[in-house]
Amino acid sequence: MKESIKLGIFGLGTVGKGVVEQLRKNGALISQRLGKELQITKAVTANPTKDRGIDLSDIQISSDPKDILDDPEIDIVLELIGGVTDAKSIVLEALQKGKSVVTANKALLAECTEEIFNMAYQSKGLFGFEASVAGCIPVIREIKSSYSGEKIEEISGIINGTANYILTSMIEDKADFQVALKAAQDKGYAEADPAFDIEGTDTAHKLIILMDLAFNGLFDLKELYVEGITKITPLDIEIAEQFGYTIKLLGKAVNTDKGFEGRVHPTLVKTSNMLASVRGAFNAVAIKGNFMGPTLSYGAGAGAYPTASAVMGDVIEISRNLLQEAGQLVPPLASMRDQLSKKKILPMSEVTTEYYLRFSVLDEVGVMSKITTLLGENDIGIRSMLQKGEAHSPKDPIHVVIFTHKAIEKNILKALAKIDSLQFVAEPTNLIRIDTE
Ligand code: HSE
Question: Which atom of ligand 1 is nearest to the CA of 131?
């Protein structure tokens, strides 16, 4: 039996450093649980001589991937560089050589799903990616193991810490969007390109991974509907609060009679819903199964230590398997490879939900009746409405806000196209979908 498990790390950024620190601090505890020692023997990084503010003296650091990939002593490769191109070659080559791999790279898994998982299914190495979704929350393990007897009906997740941090700061501290984003970047939550966080891309990457696992499928990222949080204004936040809602960036997947819904967008969530209390960079994932009913898992979704902890959990689980020579007990994507088929996502136009519509209009006679007539003609029922603001000159727009009953999205878009072309409309209507839970 092996005397120790040797790790090679690609990337000594936020997460890579977190993993080194966790092993330094909890190494003795981990050895007691594993029965053997975990050792990081090598690291590969673009800038090997950079001072990273932690003791790395016992790790051989270089910039040549071969130093890890060609080292027969290394059992587990940790891919923590992010990005897709280089990360893909590292993961594929390591698995192909029969090494085990742990990655936190959601973009890689969502964009190159088939290539990566085909190799993971074939490889003698084991594959862990718990850190790729929702930081330290073990949601991948839940779906792959605990819920493997369930037909999963619905997933609703706050799975981007940066976006949730920004929305929380805007709601609770009346913070400016850009100031809140800068604070999230300073805390190490944001992606290298923060557009991924605020435009919903990172949430989309994570949602696709959860959908593949939950629905025995290979879904196409390009079919997901993705909208970020950049159009949310303090006025929308204020009106939402007045009507008993908060605004969250949700990733939602539903197994409906019509097909699989998959969508990422800002959402009005009732303040009584537990997801509404998820603040700052925390994440939460609500999953409904046909036998277990609803569940909710909560924890830190971003940041060095929570993400490192998820990586370490995978490293220890894989080490146990390697020490027992147990092989891959749970299939990488939860189902047997020959049972995984390509699955389609319903077009957004077919989704039915409730809507918040904020019209910016001139304060003229007949405006309200024209809007409500066009909504009615498109089968859209009104649940409540509000007029907000006061025009000090005929050119000053005011706001009319309508909360609808459930309606199909294609009807909403048809009605808005007509309304937005009317001469009294000052700005395009702001539409936010409402979570009906
Ligand atoms: N930028 C990501 C987030 C990091 O804010 O959630 C964790 O995946």
Answer: 8
Name which residue sits closest to atom 7 of ligand 1, judged by CA: 302
- pLDDT exceeds 80 at position 152: yes
Q: Where are the alpha helices (DSSP H) in 35-160?
A: 66-69, 85-96, 106-111, 113-122, 139-141
Coil, strand or helix at 63: coil
Report how far residue 201's alpha carbon sits from residue 107's, in angstroms, rounded to the nearest whole number.
Answer: 9
Angle between helices 234-242 and 161-172 (to 10 degrees): 70
Residue 410 falls in the annotated catalytic set: no
CA 414 from chain centre, in angstroms, equals 30
Domains of the chain: 4-136+304-340 (3.40.50.720), 139-300 (3.30.360.10), 352-434 (3.30.70.260)
Q: Would you say the C-alpha torsion 172, 165, 400, 397 has a positive or negative sign?
A: positive
Q: Are 209 and 156 in contact (CB under 8 A)?
A: no
Pocket test for ligand 1, best of 166, 182, 197, 285 (most atoms within 8 A of CB): 197
Q: How far is the CA of 228 from the centre of ligand 1 (A)?
A: 14
Sorted by sequence, the CB contacts under 8 Å of residue 348 that are 6+ apart come out as 225, 263, 409
Residues with CB under 6 A from ligand 1: 135, 160-162, 189-191, 197, 202, 301-302
Annotated catalytic residue: which of 144, 206, 248, 288?
Answer: 206
Q: What pLDDT digit, counting tens, does each position of 303-357 carry?
A: 999 999 999 999 999 999 999 998 888 999 999 999 999 999 999 999 999 999 9
What length is written for the chain? 437
Determine which residue's CA is closest to atom 4 belonging to ligand 1.
302
Give the C-alpha distances (Å, rounded to integers) separating 328 from 9, 37, 126, 236. Answer: 22, 21, 6, 49
For 401, phi and psi rounded to 5 degrees? -115, 130
Residue at token pair 């809140």: 180
What is the enclosing helix (H) or strand (E) of 260?
strand 260-270
Q: Give the separation between CA 358 and CA 432, rounded to whole angstroms.
A: 9
238-292: per-residue pLDDT in tens?
Answer: 999 999 999 999 999 999 999 999 999 999 999 999 999 999 999 999 999 999 9
Distance 399 CA to ligand 1 centre (A): 34
Record the tokens describing residue 420, joined without a space. 């937005």
Distance 382 CA to ligand 1 centre (A): 37
Express each pLDDT in 203-238 by its tens digit: 999 999 999 999 999 999 999 999 999 999 999 999
